[in-house]
Amino acid sequence: MSNTQVTADQILDLAVEALEDVKAQNIKVLKVSELTDLMDYMVICSGTSKRHVHSLGQNVVEHLKANGVQPLGSEGRDMGSDWVLVDLHDVVVHVMTEEARAFYDLEKLWDIKPEQR
């Protein structure tokens, strides 16, 4: 798959699959296409530790690359981070520790009901 052939829904499925493979917790998918032109979906999940957060973000990047999707970028992938963001074009993945997730509360910030995956 190349980026031009992959739909946002396919990227979303690959990202969620990568998160589930490494046991992400509380995965939420927010469809934000009607609220912003920057992305179609936002995925938010939790890791049990900073190391787990790192592993989850790394797995998303590697899984997407293995399927022909080159991420636009990622932030916070060093081992000490409690929040990793992976930009996958029309899908943005946020992997956070429970503490960071509770503090930033992105679900409430976007104020929409998450789709259960």
**What is the H/E string?**
HEEHEEEHHE
Radius of gyration: 13 Å
| The top level CATH class name | Alpha Beta
Number of helices: 4
Largest sheet entry? 6 strands, mixed
- The rounded distance between the terminal residues' Cα atoms is 23 Å
Order of strands, widest sheet: 3-4-5-2-1-6
Subunit structure: Interacts with ribosomal protein uL14 (rplN).
Family: Belongs to the Iojap/RsfS family.
InterPro entries: Iojap/RsfS/C7orf30, NT_sf
GO biological process, one term: cytosolic ribosome assembly
Walk me through what this model shows.
One of its GO terms (molecular function) is ribosomal large subunit binding. Interacts with ribosomal protein uL14 (rplN). It comes from Maribrevibacterium harenarium. The protein is of the alpha+beta class and 117 residues long. It has a single domain (8-116), classed as Beta Polymerase, domain 2, CATH 3.30.460. 37% of the residues lie in helices and 26% in strands. It is built from 4 helices and 6 strands. It has helices at residues 8-21, 50-66, 98-104, 106-110, and strands spanning 25-31, 41-47, 73-75, 83-87, 91-97, 115-116. The chain has a 6-stranded mixed β-sheet. α1 (8-21) crosses α2 (50-66). The protein is globular. The mean pLDDT is 89.
